Amino acid sequence: MTGELLLVLMIVPLAAGIVIAIIPSRDKLVPVFAALHGIDVVAVMGLSFAAIVGVVGSGEVTTAAGGWFRLDQLSCIFVGLIGLIGCMTGLYAIPYIKHDVERGAMTAGKVKQFYVFFSFFVFTMLVAALSNNIFMMWVAVEATTLSTIFLVGAYDVKPSLEAAWKYAIVCMSGVAFGLYGTVLIYANAASVVPDPAQAVFWTEILPYAGQFDKLTVALAFAFVTIGFGTKAGLFPMHTWLPDAHSEAPSPVSGLLSGVLLKCAMLLIIRYYILACAAVGDAFPKAVMLIIGILSVAVAALSVFSQDDIKRKLAYHSVENIGIVALFLGFGGPLGIAAALLHCVTHGLTKAFLFCLSGNIMMKYGTRDLNKISGVLKAMPATGVLLALGFFALAGFPPFAMFVSEITGITAGVVDGQWVVLAIFVIALTIVVAACAHVVTVAVFGKVPDHVERGDVGIAALLPEVVLAVTLLWFGVAAPQPMLQCVEDATGIVAQSSTQVLHETPVVNILFGQDDGTASGM
Questions:
Q1: How far apart are CA 150 and CA 262, in angstroms?
Q2: 335 near 329, Cβ under 8 Å?
Q3: Which of 11, 36, 94, 291 is most buried (CB neighbours < 10 A)?
């Protein structure tokens, strides 16, 4: 595969956004906006998968633009999430936005704005996932904020505008710390690498990380964790997330939770690799362990107390991004593989549930769980999918999140983190209770008198069906190419052999009992 495919992958959503932007904002052209948007998200998914197959199939790394952009096995995971979830939420957005137009919540101009910034959002996430230049990584993450401000505030009403401004202020302030960490790493690298001009490239920095000043790297990693952790929604930098996720249109909420948070974690993982190479793994693991378990514990309590279904899902996002950090804190190939798997499984699960919450809002006209009941009777297909979604989110087998969570718990046992595991299991128990409560209250019960029976159209159900099938597929028999990609990515992060994935009981059922050979970059 040539590097030109990576450039085309990034150019497609950018070009689509520009084309939609120059079309006049007229009511009769709304179907044109939707058609161009649909072509865009399908093309991005196809190009993403084509790029990934070229890397996973050959085991080679693809670069573009003189090494500024790079697709390795680690970034393949996140590019795949962008492609699949971007397509599913993008296709779901078409009937969802059509409903908003019919109820008078959006004008033609707002619909155009939505599709333009949706495309720009996908573009900026692709740049973040593919960047090899550490400053470009920061720029891309900052650009995701600029594009999504207009998506969060799409409805132009006071709550959504307040959420958009809060999102902008908190994330821009927080991500500034990411810039501080980036500058520290660059300054340190420029004094060590033979060619200082190459000190902006992650792949050129990594081989010399062992020569970096340890205190500087530790400080830089702390800054990066605060900065990109703000965008990822880690506690205590998560304050923007519940408002933004709940007030944004549901397909945007799915894309924010399913992909954006994971892209921010990818950048933290890149610096985690550098920090482990420079100062050893004790400090980076401790940072991830502390911030991870705090995020899980605080979010679990918040999840249980929410009556707004989208805010409840938003706090689930904080909890699960905390789980990713926690698994990185357990460290070793087991913990790293669990973290990467959880990025995939939670991303798919949360996109699935946020789209379903959109179906409920279209039918019930509210997010308040006190006013939502009898979904199974009022909307049979949505009701079944909603119950399956919350069981998946609770981590029950045979859904995909069970696989990543059991792998992570195994990593914690191997690492001897018994106290942390105890807190983690208690938090998961609270989350399971919260999920069961939603199923009991919302899915079952009496249908409110004002709610007409009848499900949403097939266009609004098909993306969720695809995601549901994928979650079951990944939970029952995860595809070997995906597992191989996760194992290779684990080797990149751990900078060591992944043999333990094939030797550890329980986990070797997933990865097989052949010798693991993935290691290094």
A1: 21
A2: yes
A3: 291
158 three-class SS: helix
- Provide the CA 490 distance to its chain's centre, in angstroms: 18
Residues whose CB falls within 8 Å of the CB of residue 59, separated by 6 or more in sequence, listed in order: 488
Domain boundaries, the chain: 281-479
Count other Cβ atoms within 10 Å, centred on residue 28.
Answer: 8
158-172 confidence digits (pLDDT tens): 989 999 999 999 999
The residue type found at 52 is I
Instruction: Please report, for residues 151, 163, 230, the alpha-carbon distance to residue 141 in angstroms, rounded to integers and kept in the order given.
Output: 16, 19, 11
- Residue 233 backbone dihedrals phi, psi, to 5 degrees: 90, 25
d(CA 280, CA 269): 15
Which of 427, 255, 410 lies closest to 335, judged by CA?
A: 410
Model-level pTM? Answer: 0.94
- Write out the two tokens for 317: 């996002």
Q: What is the maximum alpha-carbon separation in the chain?
A: 73
Q: How far apart are CA 24 and CA 225, in angstroms?
A: 42
Average pLDDT over residues 343-357: 95
State the Cα–Cα distance between residues 331 and 339, nearest whole angstrom: 9
pLDDT at 516 over 50: no
Torsions phi, psi for 131 (to 5 deg): -70, 135
Amino acid at 181: G
| Helix (DSSP H) and strand (DSSP E) numbers for the chain | 22, 2
Please name the residue that has the structure tokens 């107390």. 305
Q: Which amino acid is at 162?
A: E
* DSSP per position, 42-99: HHHHHHHHHHHHHHHHH---EEETTTTEEE-HHHHHHHHHHHHHHHHHHHHHHHHHHH
Residues 6+ apart with CB under 8 A from 91: 38, 41, 42, 459, 462, 463
* Three-class SS state of 308: strand
